[in-house]
């Protein structure tokens, strides 16, 4: 009986059932253990990993600050745009997509097709496309064609003021000019939007999200006056057309504040395309380019001599010839092997000249004789006092310092420096130096930024450095001498209808590649108006004008007149009584 | 001493039957079901309203973004239209020039020669403004 019972108890069916139960028990146990691991032991770790998979962070690009001119007219703005891109893996009809999208965006279809078939995961078709055009592309409903928002920098005035503004690169980062100089103020702070999303990037509704908004950049108000700027650029273009010069640069500064009204240059530069009209890159000769100023330097030499009592305006300089030899044999040599021979622009008999006549007739010999009455240190002091050989502090990147060479070992340097040779200056430096004479002897730091406006309403104004270069009396004398140059001297073409103008012409021969002076000139004119109470100083520099326009009076003075007239009208300066 | 037991007298025709508990049990379930259904409907309504509000909000935000974008484009358009690079050639084509003869306002008691005096700089600006207004009014 017991054997039957045992047989019944361990029958095959029961064994199977038992094994099945055991398996089930083991499986449930395994699941329980795994559940315990997932839900208890690794719960937080896995929860974090899950959130990490769902969590998406989107960078919110800040709106770059706008740049306005002194009247509040926008010169640079940021607008919404879209960048069109492709995901080639999603594209089923590569040729059709390339033709349609490329056609709408002005991108060659062949190149686009090549990019699609290159195996890349992501291909930009065109960045920063205007919204309307982007909508047209997206309305085609082509698989694999996508767009994302991207702010675009635009310059509503086109090429006007481009040499002041500079430009940003494709990623909206300032690369030149004011855009570069004030990058930290303009760019703002990016924000972040984090949210949970399903595969494919679709946001999960009601899931937790967090947004840190982007902080827009500050708006900048420049000192530039757009109409004056335009006038200066147009004058430069006209000057190049008439004189055949290779370059023209104009700087206009408000005398009483140092505010730069215009920095213009030709050829013009297109900030949107980041290329100049002649295909060259960005340049700003007015700030970065150095040149030998020639006779415009005489203002500083003569002002220094008058300030130190070396001469007065009526002091007679005896026996002023049309040539002076500072080193024996210098004038007898046909070559420039021996430096030290200086001539006046035109031949004349040797005669006595008052300092005022020396200045009005721009006599090199007379000016050298005046400089010879000064010590090397005196001359150096006044060159520095008028801001030469130093950065002016203009808020613009890459300003050139200029060069002053009055080394003791250089015998002819004081004489050549006095007439604007052997020194290198920038147009901005010369404008600021003449501005000091207009501002009763006080040199003011030229500046391009007027104020910044933050989102919080904070407004900051640019501080301006200043120092006295010469006395009020000397400045008044120099203004009188400058007015004679325009009234009856070399600068007659600089006259402005309705206003009394003062200024000085400059004509300097350019150095050739062999280090010798050539017949090619750098013609310039720097002047002030109204001369009895100057409001504006304008400096014009023309590079390599044709021979018949080789002097500052012929090449640069007419442009000065045009720009000065516009600036005086813009500032509402009352015409002078004597000219009305 | 023990009290005598109560006597019960049997009544003919009467018998003991099971009681029904006083209140009907079904009404409680009906009430609970009604509340549950109402709560469910209420939640659906609230959820729908919230969704609708969210859609409305998104729509408003989209409209706002579009309005901002339009405003931005219009500002850009204004700036382009006001650019001197556009206006100056048009003015030139129309033959507009600066007035060749200056018109001056002489204020009684203020001599012309004093206009260049720094003390009258404010007056100069004022007069210049008047001059600009006069010129503007005199234009054809």
> What can be said about the biggest beta sheet of chain B?
none
Oligomer: heterodimer
Give Rg of chain A in angstroms. 37 Å
The percent range for strand residues of chain B is under 5%
How many helices of chain A? The count is 20
Tell the overall outline of chain A.
Answer: elongated
Residue-averaged pLDDT of chain B:
73
Span of the ends, CA to CA of chain A: 146 Å
Could you report the average pLDDT of chain A, rounded to the nearest whole number?
Answer: 88
Give the strand order of the largest sheet of chain A, numbering strands 1, 2, ... along the chain.
7-3-2-10-20-21
The portion of residues forming beta strands of chain A comes to 15-25%
Global structural class of chain B: mainly alpha
Helix percentage range of chain B: 55-70%
The ordered H/E elements of chain B are HHH
Task: Offer a few descriptive terms.
heterodimer; A: 580 residues; alpha+beta; 6-stranded mixed sheet; 5-stranded antiparallel sheet; 22% strand; elongated; B: 140 residues; mainly alpha; 61% helix; rod-shaped; disordered C terminus
Structural notes for this entry:
The complex is a heterodimer of chains A (580) and B (140). Chain A is of the alpha+beta class and 580 residues long. Chain A contains 20 helices and 25 strands. In chain A, 35% of the residues lie in helices and 22% in strands. In chain A, the strands form eight sheets. Chain A has a six-stranded mixed beta sheet with strand order 7-3-2-10-20-21, with no helix packed on it. In chain A, strands 12-11-25-24-23 form a five-stranded antiparallel beta sheet, sandwiched between helices. The radius of gyration of chain A is 37 Å and the shape is elongated. Chain B has helices spanning 26-82, 84-93, 121-138. Chain B is rod-shaped and about 145 Å long. The termini of chain B are far apart. The model of chain B is unreliable at 112-140 (pLDDT under 50). Classes of the chains: A alpha+beta (580), B mainly alpha (140). The interface between A and B is medium-sized, with 34 and 30 residues.
């Amino acid at each position: 009986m017991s054997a039957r019972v045992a047989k019944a108890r361990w029958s095959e069916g029961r064994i199977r059932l038992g094994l099945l139960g055991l398996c089930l028990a083991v499986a449930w146990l395994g699941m329980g253990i795994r559940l315990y691991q997932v839900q208890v032991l690794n719960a937080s770790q896995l929860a974090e990993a899950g959130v990490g998979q769902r969590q998406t962070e989107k960078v919110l690009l800040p709106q770059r600050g706008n740049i306005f001119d002194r009247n509040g007219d926008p010169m640079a703005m940021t607008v919404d745009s879209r960048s069109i891109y492709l995901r080639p893996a999603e594209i089923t009809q590569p040729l059709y997509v390339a033709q349609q999208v490329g056609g709408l965006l002005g991108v060659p279809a062949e190149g686009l097709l090549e990019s699609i078939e290159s195996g890349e995961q992501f291909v930009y078709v065109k960045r920063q496309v205007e919204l309307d055009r982007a909508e047209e592309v997206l309305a085609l409903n082509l698989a694999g064609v996508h767009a994302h928002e991207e702010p675009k920098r635009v310059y509503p005035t086109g090429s006007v003021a481009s040499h002041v503004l500079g430009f940003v690169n494709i990623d909206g980062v300032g690369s030149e000019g004011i855009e570069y100089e004030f990058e930290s103020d303009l760019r703002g702070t990016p924000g972040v939007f984090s949210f949970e999303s399903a595969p494919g990037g679709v946001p999960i509704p009601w899931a937790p999200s967090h947004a840190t908004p982007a902080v827009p950049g500050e708006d900048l108000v420049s000192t530039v006056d757009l109409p004056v700027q335009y006038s200066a650029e147009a004058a430069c273009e006209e000057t190049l057309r008439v004189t055949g010069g290779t370059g023209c640069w104009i700087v206009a500064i408000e005398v009483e504040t140092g505010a730069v009204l215009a920095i213009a240059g030709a050829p013009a530069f297109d900030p949107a395309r980041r290329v100049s009209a002649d295909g060259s890159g960005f340049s700003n000769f007015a700030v970065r380019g150095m040149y030998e100023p020639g006779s415009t330097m005489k203002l500083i030499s003569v002002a220094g001599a008058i300030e130190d009592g070396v001469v007065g305006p009526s002091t007679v300089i005896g026996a002023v010839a049309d040539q002076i030899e500072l080193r024996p044999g210098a004038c007898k040599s046909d070559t420039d092997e021996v430096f030290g021979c200086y001539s006046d622009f035109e031949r004349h008999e040797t005669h006595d000249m008052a300092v005022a006549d020396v200045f009005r007739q721009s006599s090199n010999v007379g000016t050298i004789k005046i400089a010879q009455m000064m010590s090397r240190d005196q001359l150096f002091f006044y060159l520095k006092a008028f801001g030469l050989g130093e950065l002016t502090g203009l808020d613009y990147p890459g300003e050139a310092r200029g060069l002053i060479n009055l080394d003791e070992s250089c015998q002819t340097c004081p004489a050549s420096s006095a007439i604007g040779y052997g020194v290198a200056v920038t147009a901005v430096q010369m404008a600021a130096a003449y501005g000091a004479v207009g501002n009763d002897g006080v040199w003011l730091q030229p500046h391009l930024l007027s104020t910044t406006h933050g989102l919080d309403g904070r407004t900051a104004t640019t501080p301006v450095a200043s120092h006295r270069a010469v006395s009020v009396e000397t400045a008044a004398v120099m203004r009188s001498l400058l007015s004679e140059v325009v009234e009856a001297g070399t600068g007659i073409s600089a006259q402005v209808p309705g206003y009394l103008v003062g200024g000085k012409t400059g004509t300097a021969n350019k150095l050739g590649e062999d280090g010798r002076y050539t017949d090619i000139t750098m013609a310039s004119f720097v002047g002030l108006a109204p001369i009895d109470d100057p409001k504006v100083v304008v400096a014009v520099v023309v590079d390599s004008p044709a021979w018949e326009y080789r002097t500052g009076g012929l090449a640069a003075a007419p442009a000065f007149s045009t720009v000065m007239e516009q600036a005086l009208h813009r500032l509402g300066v009352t015409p002078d009584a004597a000219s009305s | 001493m023990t009290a005598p037991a109560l006597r019960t007298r049997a009544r003919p025709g009467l018998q003991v039957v099971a009681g029904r508990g006083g209140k009907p049990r079904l009404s409680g379930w009906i009430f609970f079901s009604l509340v549950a259904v109402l709560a469910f409907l209420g939640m659906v309504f609230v959820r729908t309203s919230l969704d609708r509000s969210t859609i409305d909000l998104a729509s408003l935000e989209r409209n706002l973004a579009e309005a901002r974008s339009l405003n931005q484009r219009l500002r850009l358009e204004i700036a382009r239209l006001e650019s001197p690079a556009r206006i100056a050639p048009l003015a030139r084509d129309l033959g507009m020039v600066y007035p060749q003869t200056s018109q001056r306002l002489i204020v009684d008691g203020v001599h012309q020669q004093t206009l260049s005096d720094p003390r009258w700089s404010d007056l100069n600006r004022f007069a210049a403004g008047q001059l600009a207004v006069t010129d503007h009014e005199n234009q054809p």
